[in-house]
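Q: Structure tokens for this one, please.
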Amino acid sequence: MEIEGAIAIAEALQKNNTLKILDIGLNRLRARGAEAIAKMLAVNTTLERIGLKHNRIADVQGMTIARTIVSNKNSSIKYIALAGNFLSVPIRSEIALL
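A: Here is the predicted structure, written as tokens:
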């Protein structure tokens, strides 16, 4: 999937009220795609699991995604997969504590 595809999915899921599991691992989302996912997670209330493995997500975007989930008081996210991204050990530890 190209970054534009990830952005389109994220925009559509801002209005989602049925999808509970989304796995978009191995898609090289990078910064722009990860930022679009974070924006979606700020308003989405139905996703429970999101797989973002091996998407070249760096520390800043990883923390943005994690903090966005925590700040969305109506979020249903119970599980997020971030393995295989470009996250440093301190950032992975901090995300695990959220």
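A few notes: The two ends are 29 Å apart (CA to CA). Residues 59-71 form the longest helix (13 residues).
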